[in-house]
Write a structure and sequence with these properties.
59 residues, mainly alpha, 0% strand
Length: 59
């Protein structure tokens, strides 16, 4: 198929050069991801609950 604008603007419908796909981009973004958790959410919650209970028991 050809675009209809080819009839109105023939000088603009020249074919372009073929595109050479480059390889996988360099991993310059290494380390920019979200940091990993040191403890699980369950461990964090358990520690928070325990700390709150310790504060409640304090005189």
């Amino acid at each position: 198929t050809t675009p209809g604008s080819r009839l109105l603007f023939p000088e603009l419908s020249k074919p372009t050069a073929t595109v050479q796909a480059s390889g996988v981009p360099a991993s310059h973004t290494a380390g920019l991801t979200m940091p990993r958790r040191k403890t699980t959410r369950a461990q964090d919650r358990t520690r928070r609950v325990q700390r709150e209970r310790e504060l409640n028991e304090a005189p």
